[in-house]
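Good morning,

Attaching, inline, the backbone tokens for the sequence recovery test we're adding to the shared suite. The designed sequence is right after.
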């Protein structure tokens, strides 16, 4: 019997902060032999550029000019996925709490979303990719082949984030819970592309699952669907 050749799929994974999207997306892409695209890193890079150039989070004209003038690229190296901003690898600067808060703020602004919408769609043209974000299945790729919405209880998401932060200067868990709640509110209540499951998304609650457990469920869905 000849093995079934699968078409190259576009898979999207949306969900709130700390649900495990990054780990799961990376693992799933590996299992499928696909590219993995972390769209949050693109928002973070725009936030970093705005901070470096002192453009305010509510300055739409400034943000528009900034977006017109920057060049963002995602490249895979032996150190994993790297974000290149105007030729410089800024990956290691993207995860701080300040950049995180600024990314949440600039991601609500039209010029930023418009700029990244075009960029993300261009990155998706080749298919054979797992895209992770907030509006992948709803706005950026409404025609994606397989859509997942990954969620987990807020306390569990905060516990995971807390464990990831360097011990030096780590805020108390209660602060991280409040920061995640605030980010959930920002991401879900904004007018433009708010975080919500696509009507045709498969919803997975990761509260009691390991990343591998989540990936197995996803692969089972993909098997059923293709
Ligand atoms: O996934 P993350 O934490 O790296 O995302 C950083 C911020 O970017 C987050 O506050 C929401 C925003 N974001 C978005 O609005 N749309 C996306 N597709 C990805 C991220």
């Amino acid at each position: 019997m000849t093995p079934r050749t699968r078409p190259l799929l576009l898979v999207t994974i949306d969900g709130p902060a700390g649900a495990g999207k990054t780990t799961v997306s990376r693992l799933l892409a590996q299992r499928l032999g696909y590219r993995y695209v972390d769209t949050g890193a693109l928002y973070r890079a725009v936030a970093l550029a705005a901070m470096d150039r002192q453009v305010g989070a509510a300055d739409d004209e400034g943000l528009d000019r900034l977006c017109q003038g920057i060049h963002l690229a995602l490249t895979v190296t032996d150190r994993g996925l790297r974000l290149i901003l105007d030729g410089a690898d800024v990956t290691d600067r993207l995860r701080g709490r300040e950049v995180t808060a600024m990314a949440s703020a600039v991601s609500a602004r039209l010029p930023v979303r418009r700029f990244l919408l075009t960029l993300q769609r261009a990155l998706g043209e080749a298919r054979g990719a797992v895209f992770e974000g907030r509006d992948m299945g709803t706005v950026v790729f409404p025609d994606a082949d397989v859509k997942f919405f990954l969620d987990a209880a807020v306390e569990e998401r905060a516990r995971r984030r807390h464990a990831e932060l360097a011990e030096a200067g780590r805020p108390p868990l209660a602060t991280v819970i409040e920061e995640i709640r605030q980010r959930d509110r920002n991401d879900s209540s904004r007018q433009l592309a708010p975080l919500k499951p696509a009507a045709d998304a498969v919803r997975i609650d990761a509260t009691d699952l390991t990343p591998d457990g989540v990936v197995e469920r996803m692969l089972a869905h993909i098997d059923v669907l293709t």
